[in-house]
Amino acid sequence: MLEQMGIAAKAASYKLALLSSGEKNRVLEKIADELEAQMESILSANVQDVEQARANGLSEAMLDRLAL
């Protein structure tokens, strides 16, 4: 799975390199909009991740890095 994601990311990087600055900015704006739209579910999932990590004994320093 990670290998496939890496291959897809590399292919996307080649396509991204061909975009103009304006096109890249529009893509980034769409990504930002989607992150904002999904903020509640992202934060909820993060809380669950932190709770699970705490239950598994992750250090406070690592928990701080994990928490959004």
From TrEMBL:
<dbReference type="InterPro" id="IPR016162">
    <property type="entry name" value="Ald_DH_N"/>
</dbReference>
<dbReference type="InterPro" id="IPR016161">
    <property type="entry name" value="Ald_DH/histidinol_DH"/>
</dbReference>
<keyword id="KW-0560">Oxidoreductase</keyword>
<protein>
    <submittedName>
        <fullName>Gamma-glutamyl-phosphate reductase</fullName>
    </submittedName>
</protein>
<dbReference type="GO" id="GO:0004350">
    <property type="term" value="F:glutamate-5-semialdehyde dehydrogenase activity"/>
</dbReference>
